[in-house]
């Protein structure tokens, strides 16, 4: 199967006065496993529906393999979509569900039979062909929905919240399976999710949407390590934010806030003035208030307000003047623990600080 | 919640069970028993052989099935496009279609049948016009066609309403996934949308079949006597209560009705309703294209004209002095209304009395059964529901014959009147016939009341009796009112059992009065006038109860939002 590129060009869409998508410009490379990540109402599902042809943008074009398909009817697009609730037709058997798209393409009977069998084999449901969808478990229903879509050999595969209707264990299992299947077929795949862990774990690239606007596009690691703005920093993982002022110097920049004092930063394109720095809870170290201060770190004094045990690590909420700072410490036999109320010092490595805009 | 059955519940269930057995089960079993036994009580099939040896009976049998089946077909032709338009297109016709749906149900078909003859008959308005202009004559109102046409026109709303609800329940993802896989247009409708709405269609179709099978008065008004209901009525009325042929006809009618009901569920066995998932959206509606608009509105106007024709027809007829061989009446008068006001106060009072009794009893029995079903674990509670709902499959003529036979040796206590000619028997027949509908609204009403509302009342110290009267009944009141109104209004136009059970003119309700008037040419005018009065009252009642229900709904809306 030829791998295709998908391009959104300046897509804007509104329902009445509600602007759902604004100026979306996005290119998805051939064969990529691409995630659209965002909170509910961010427009990510709408963008998927624009590609499938179910929502018409007021302006902008959609290109698949370089060809403009903006005015093509949904049933002529050859873009397979797996719906969030699977949308299996209850009046048809599993086999009939999978055969549907092939029949609509007027393929000869024997070809349909072969392709249905192949699709069902791919998802491991050969024995269930005669059953009705209602006789299958949630995970099996999803495989049928997947087989039904793959059977038509679409140019692009769309998955709308593919794992949201599965329980936690199955979700983790299915996401690796989805990835394996995608790699095997090599088909350009776009999936929508509100679960950042899901997006980070399997996607090649992620576009984060909020308020109908793309906030950042990048690999999972880029999003996590270099969040472009406050929204991304908060939405992807957990983060601490400190407000202050940025000043440019000959050597680079200096960030100044009552909490951190003056901190030297490498040269930045960021304009001087109001600014915010961010740092991850797991990049912090905690010592007792009278402990030794390792050089090169920024030290902040505070009180342990709360302690949460999360298995692999302990999460402390530490009250510092004017704010709370979240700090994660790995949990292992013999590790040091701090009880709520303890006076502690938080150590921050300057290289872990990220300057944020917006 | 597991409440242990207690004495009061058991007593209630027993009382209702007894009522149902006496006024539904035993009469039906009696009819079946008589059909299968000789006069000495031995089992036999000979009555069935004699039945099918009679040419008239064979003919009636086929005619009944034919009229029932064809009425479903013609109803579908009216209803399918209308349901399709509302589900598929955004247009200002939804209210129109709703109205269209309710209108024919307010007036039973036999009332308008005479007017339909005058409008669409061989020498009716339409054919006089067509003859003048094109020299053609349409045979719409001839023989069985007349019955099929009139019945379909009155009962197609059952299909329309059920189908529309079913279409509105389809999740848009069902349709979109089919489009995504390459289906579109009519193929999409045929392969995905219609099959998913099938349960709604079949439920409506079965109801149409039942109603048509049940109807004895419309064929008689239209001079069609060779169908089962009419034959059963004639045999018992003219030959006598012991004539077995009438019972055989009755048994066949019951079997056909049960088969229609059972068949509609059997086809759907193992296929569940494709109901809307939480948070899903309904099918997308499009704006009508220009030629689609012409087609859609054209069809709606055409059907609307047909639907309104019996109403307009009896209105014209009620004001006419003479109306025959003319497009509209030749002379107008108010005399018909004068006649009716002189003759009919007794009938109006009788209708109010019988239907009032039936409505109250239906709501009481209906809510009691609903409570036993949903709130207790009493053994046999499902059976009560099953029997009460089963009344829907018993044609009125059959129930009437069953009453006449079962109670022929009983007389009313303290009065030397045989029970079979006592007016109360009509009210009981109405109660049993309308119980299935009242029961459904009571069950729906109680399902709305979450058990936790009762539990919190009990938690705050209310006994279960106090809880019922202070919490359950007030919250159910809307549904109970709806049940009462439905029972009352539909009983007011009941004719099939009435025709069997009215023994004296002084006991006759309005529906019987209309039927009687329509039997003679001279009575048509007054009959139409009485019909207009009845339809106006029923229509006003329906509208009023709709308004009350709406007011209630908005009052409870804020509360519902909290759930």
Beta fraction of chain A: 35-45%
Ranges of chain B where pLDDT stays below 50 over 5 or more residues in a row are 557-563
Estimate the global geometry of chain A from the Cα principal axes: elongated
Total domains of chain A? 2
Helix content of chain A: 10-25%
Based on CA atoms alone, the radius of gyration of chain A comes out at 25 Å
Task: Average the pLDDT over all residues of chain A and give the rounded result.
Answer: 89
- N→C terminal distance of chain B: 19 Å
- Tell me roughly what share of residues is in helical segments of chain B: over 70%
Q: Pairing-aware structural class of the strands and helices of chain B?
A: mainly alpha
Amino- and carboxy-terminal Cα gap of chain A: 43 Å
Mind telling me which CATH architecture of the largest domain in chain B this is? Answer: Orthogonal Bundle
Structural class of chain A: alpha+beta
Q: Could you tell me which chain pair has the largest interface and how many residues each side has?
A: A-B, 28 and 24 residues
Q: For the largest beta sheet of chain A, what order do the strands appear in spatially?
A: 6-7-8-3-9-10
In N-to-C order, the SSE pattern of chain A is EEEHEEEHHHEHEHEEHHEEEEEEEEEE
**CATH topology-level fold name of the largest domain in chain A:** Rossmann fold
């Amino acid at each position: 199967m030829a791998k295709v590129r998908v391009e959104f060009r300046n897509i804007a869409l509104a329902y009445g006065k509600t602007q759902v998508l604004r100026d979306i410009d996005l290119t998805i490379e051939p064969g990529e496993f691409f995630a659209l990540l965002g909170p509910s109402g961010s427009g990510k599902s709408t963008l998927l529906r624009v590609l499938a042809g179910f929502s018409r943008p007021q302006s902008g074009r959609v290109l698949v393999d370089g060809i403009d398909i903006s005015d093509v009817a949904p049933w002529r697009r050859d873009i397979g979509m797996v719906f969030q609730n699977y949308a299996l037709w209850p009046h048809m058997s599993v086999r009939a569900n999978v055969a549907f798209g092939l029949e609509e393409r007027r393929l000869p009977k024997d070809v349909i039979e072969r392709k249905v069998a192949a699709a069902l084999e791919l998802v491991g449901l050969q024995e269930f062909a005669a059953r009705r969808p209602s006789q299958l478990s949630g995970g099996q229903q999803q495989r049928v929905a997947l087989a039904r879509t793959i059977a038509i050999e679409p140019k692009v595969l769309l998955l709308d919240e593919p794992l949201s209707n599965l329980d936690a264990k199955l979700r983790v299992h299915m996401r690796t399976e989805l990835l394996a299947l995608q790699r095997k077929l090599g088909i350009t795949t776009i999936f929508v999710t509100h679960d950042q862990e899901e997006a980070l774990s399997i996607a090649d690239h992620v576009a984060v949407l909020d308020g109908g606007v793309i906030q950042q596009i990048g690999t999972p690691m880029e999003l996590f390590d270099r969040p472009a703005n406050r929204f991304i920093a908060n939405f992807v993982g957990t983060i601490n934010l400190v407000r202050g002022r940025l000043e440019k110097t000959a050597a680079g920049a200096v960030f100044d806030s009552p909490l951190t004092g003056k901190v030297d930063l490498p040269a930045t394109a960021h304009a001087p003035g109001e600014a915010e720095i961010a740092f991850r809870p797991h990049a912090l170290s905690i010592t007792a208030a009278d402990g030794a201060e390792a050089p090169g770190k920024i030290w902040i004094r505070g009180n342990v307000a709360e302690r949460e045990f999360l298995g692999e690590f302990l999460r402390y909420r530490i009250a510092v003047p004017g704010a709370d700072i979240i700090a994660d410490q790995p949990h292992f036999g013999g590790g040091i623990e701090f009880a709520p109320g303890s006076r502690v010092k938080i150590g921050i490595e300057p290289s872990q600080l990220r300057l944020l805009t917006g | 919640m597991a409440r242990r059955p207690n004495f009061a519940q058991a007593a209630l269930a027993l009382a209702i069970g007894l009522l149902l057995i006496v006024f539904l089960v035993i009469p039906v079993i009696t009819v079946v028993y008589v059909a299968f036994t000789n006069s000495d009580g031995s089992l036999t099939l000979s009555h069935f052989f004699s039945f099918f040896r009679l040419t008239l009976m064979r003919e009636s049998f086929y005619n009944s099935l034919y009229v029932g089946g064809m009425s479903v077909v013609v109803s579908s032709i009216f209803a399918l496009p209308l349901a399709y338009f509302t589900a598929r297109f955004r247009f200002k016709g939804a209210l129109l279609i709703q109205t269209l749906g309710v209108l024919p149900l307010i007036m039973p078909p036999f009332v308008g049948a005479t007017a339909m003859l005058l409008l669409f008959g061989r020498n009716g308005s339409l054919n006089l016009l067509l003859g003048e202009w094109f020299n053609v004559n349409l045979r719409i109102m001839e023989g069985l066609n007349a019955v099929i046409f009139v019945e379909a026109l009155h009962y197609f709303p059952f299909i329309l309403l059920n189908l529309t609800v079913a279409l509105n329940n389809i999740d848009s993802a069902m349709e979109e996934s089919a489009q995504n896989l390459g289906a579109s247009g009519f193929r999409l409708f045929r392969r995905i949308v219609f099959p998913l709405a099938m349960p709604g269609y079949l439920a409506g179709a079965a109801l149409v079949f039942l109603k048509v099978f049940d109807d004895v008065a419309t064929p008689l008004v239209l001079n069609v006597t060779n169908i089962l209901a009419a034959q059963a009525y004639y045999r018992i009325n003219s030959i006598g209560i012991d004539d077995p042929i009438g019972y055989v006809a009755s048994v066949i009618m019951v079997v056909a009705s049960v088969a229609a009901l059972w068949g509609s569920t059997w086809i759907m066995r193992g296929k569940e309703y494709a109901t809307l998932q939480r948070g899903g959206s309904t099918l997308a509606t499009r704006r009508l294209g220009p030629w689609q608009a012409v087609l859609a509105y054209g069809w709606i106007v055409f059907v609307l004209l047909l639907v309104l024709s019996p109403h307009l027809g009896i209105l014209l007829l009620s004001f006419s002095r003479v109306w025959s061989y003319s497009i509209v009446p030749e002379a107008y008068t108010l005399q018909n209304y004068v006649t009716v006001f002189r003759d009919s106060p007794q009938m109006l009072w009788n209708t109010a009395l019988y239907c009032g009794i039936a409505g109250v009893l239906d709501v009481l029995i209906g809510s009691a059964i609903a409570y036993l079903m949903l709130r207790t674990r009493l053994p046999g509670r499902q059976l009560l529901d099953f029997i009460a709902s089963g009344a829907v499959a018993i044609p009125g003529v059959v129930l009437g014959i069953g009453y006449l036979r079962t109670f022929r040796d009983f007389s009313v206590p303290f009065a030397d009147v045989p029970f079979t000619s006592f007016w109360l028997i009509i009210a009981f027949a109405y109660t049993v016939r309308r119980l299935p509908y009242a029961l459904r609204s009571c069950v729906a009403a109680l399902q709305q009341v979450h058990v936790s509302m009762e539990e919190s009342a009990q938690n705050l110290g209310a006994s279960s009796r106090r809880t019922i009267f202070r919490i359950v009944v007030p919250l159910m009141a809307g549904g109970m009112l709806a049940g009462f109104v439905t029972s009352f209004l539909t009983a007011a136009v009941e004719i099939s059992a009435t025709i069997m059970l009215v023994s004296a003119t002084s006991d006759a309700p309005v529906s019987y009065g209309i039927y009687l008037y329509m039997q003679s040419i001279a009575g048509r005018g007054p009959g139409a006038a009485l019909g207009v009065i009845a339809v106006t009252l029923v229509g006003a009642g329906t509208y009023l109860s709709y308004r009350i229900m709406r007011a209630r709904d908005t009052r409870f809306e804020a509360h519902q939002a909290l759930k």
